[in-house]
Amino acid sequence: MRIYPILALPVLLSFSAYADSPSTNQDARVILQKVLANRPVKDFSLKARLFVGDADPVMVDILVKNIATETRTIYRAAQTQALVVQPVNGEPHFYLRGVGELTDAKRMERLLGSEFSYYDLGLPFLRWANAKLLDADDRVRARDCFAIETSAEGQPYARVKIWIDKEYYALLRAEAFDKNENLVRRFAVTSFKKIGEAWIPRGLEAAVLPPGQSLPNQQKSRLEVYEGNYDTQLPVAWFATEGFGATASGGRNTAP
Asked: pTM to 2 decimals?
């Protein structure tokens, strides 16, 4: 069975139909390459609820376009449309309709007021070159995991601790730290759901911990997938970056 990831979410959002035999004698970078290779080959669409604080959930459509060289994902709710362009090799790019490409600090702005930032949706820390295996026999939610740490200069996070399921090479949890070693954000996959032939994360949580605050004071958001269609045929034009420029207001190059 393979699990496809939605957060890169398309690296969080899916699994395939096989699992590797668990092994502890692996390099951290090799493990992460297996996670990144665990990507769907077909287009798919999802419907989800985004829970932010005590407010009513926001309904979110997630549209995923897969080609050999990249994955493009649209997150759409009411008048908000965000696009994440994730090359198979290279850094992700982030776009917000009516704003254009999000760079530098703008990447850390919050999706629909939630604790998920646009930067988080691309899971760039899975691609950071500096990676080390911390524990080959850790456990998360009763699953055997590899615990890995990645780090990079000039990124919103200084380092990220990642837990990878040893059987399915799926991301289960991540903890991000700032340059002062404060734990500032947590991600967790809380459950999975099968859609067609694909398994995807059904529940995703993001929690922000203000520096110096303890865990009870964390601010948490949850994305819950309740419906989906695997092997959807999605028009390429919907995912064109031109449709997410600063002057974009709709038209044939944006998803309806």
From this structure: 0.84
